[in-house]
């Protein structure tokens, strides 16, 4: 029954779009079956077919975030420090879209911290992100652009800097216009690259 | 009527303790009048005398967090880089108490991002925190322990590093035992202090 299947996919897209709009407007704290239903002009009963409980809805929203992020265009840059900078530039809230995406991510931490399964999922996400950063760190080390300190620790430090800058910039958009975020990032990378000591 | 006043203060302490327990268990996402009432063995109706709406409850919880943090014992250290390190050590989730406090803080970002007034309050909190860090940065610069780069940018970078490390450590306690957090912090400070270039 292809028609029915098509309907099902179309409905699923509607649900995804409604979940996304609720997240963008209210964050994870406002993500409820009722809010998604209202956004769709549907009943809460319909939504429970998709999400038997709140945790399913939150887990689905996190999957949507992963897909949304994976679908974003990426800067390209030569291997090494330039590629590392490109990865970090892609994460900073320097555009309205990146601000919206980062607000949703940061707001997911509350829900994720309150549930061991979701927290484990976030831990795995950040471990993968550090792994990507480490890959670029090791390339930069081979090129002599970064000192030969522990690449795991260096990846943690770099991810720390980026996450912390994102949080501050989200709360104080005026204090952290795009050009200041970029200046801070470049200053941080310059600090790393000119350092001879251990990180 | 001193007895009545005493009752009022005792009740207020009960409310504060219940709000704190709800935050510690469920984060801000689970902070509702109903949850606090249940925790107190009281009615939701009683709670509405204290908090006419959800936003009042969240704002009160943030005030409690400020008070709780201000009441924590502080490490003392000589002026300069050592004092800066002490301030950062006080914030890292290296003890069960510091983990619990940081979980509550990070979970507050969702609620705060969803409300302009609360977001402005958080922006002011982080601005004050950067100001404290900048004070120590300038002292370290006078002592020649840090390079004479822009102290405002340096304070942002240092706060970024600490916030981002806190987030990663909260999600992955096994990956970030206290000794690794401290090693990462000391590595970061060493990077700053041995750098001759601009930050």
Strand and helix layout:
The structure is a homodimer of 199-residue chains.
Chain A: H1 2-26, H2 33-40, H3 44-50, H4 54-70, H5 81-91, H6 96-113, H7 116-142, H8 151-171, H9 178-193
Main β-sheet of chain A, in a few words?
none
What fold name stands as the CATH topology of the largest domain in chain A?
Tetracycline Repressor, domain 2
Q: Provide the low-confidence segments of chain A as ranges.
A: 195-199
Helical fraction of chain A equals over 70%
CATH superfamily of the largest domain in chain A: Tetracycline Repressor, domain 2
Shape of chain A: elongated
Largest interface: A-B, 51 and 51 residues
Number of domains of chain A: 2
Q: What's the CATH architecture name of the largest domain in chain A? A: Orthogonal Bundle
Helical run tally of chain A: 9
Mean pLDDT of chain A comes to: 89
Order of helices and strands of chain A: HHHHHHHHH
Cα distance, first to last residue of chain A? 60 Å
Oligomeric composition of the shown chains? homodimer
Task: Return the structural class of chain A.
Answer: mainly alpha
| Rg from Cα of chain A | 20 Å
Percent strand of chain A equals under 5%
For the record, the CATH class of the largest domain in chain A is: Mainly Alpha
Counting DSSP E segments of at least 2 residues, the number of strands of chain A comes to 0
């Amino acid at each position: 029954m292809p028609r029915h299947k098509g309907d099902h996919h179309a409905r699923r897209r509607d649900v995804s779009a409604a979940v996304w709009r609720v997240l963008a407007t209210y964050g994870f704290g406002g993500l409820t079956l009722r809010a998604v239903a209202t956004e769709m002009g549907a009943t809460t009963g319909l939504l429970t077919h998709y999400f038997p409980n709140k945790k399913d809805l939150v887990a689905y929203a996190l999957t949507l975030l992963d897909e949304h992020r994976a679908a974003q265009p990426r800067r390209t840059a030569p291997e090494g420090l330039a590629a590392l900078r490109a990865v970090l530039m892609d994460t900073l809230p320097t555009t309205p879209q990146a601000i919206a995406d980062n607000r949703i991510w940061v707001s997911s931490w509350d829900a994720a911290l309150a549930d061991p399964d979701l927290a484990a999922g976030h831990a795995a996400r950040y471990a993968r992100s550090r792994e990507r950063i480490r890959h670029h760190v090791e390339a930069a080390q081979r090129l002599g652009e970064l000192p030969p300190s522990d690449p795991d620790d260096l990846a943690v430090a770099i991810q720390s800097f980026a996450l912390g800058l994102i949080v501050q910039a989200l709360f104080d958009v005026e204090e952290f216009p795009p050009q200041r975020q970029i200046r801070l990032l470049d200053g941080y990378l310059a600090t790393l690259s000119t350092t001879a000591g251990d990180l």
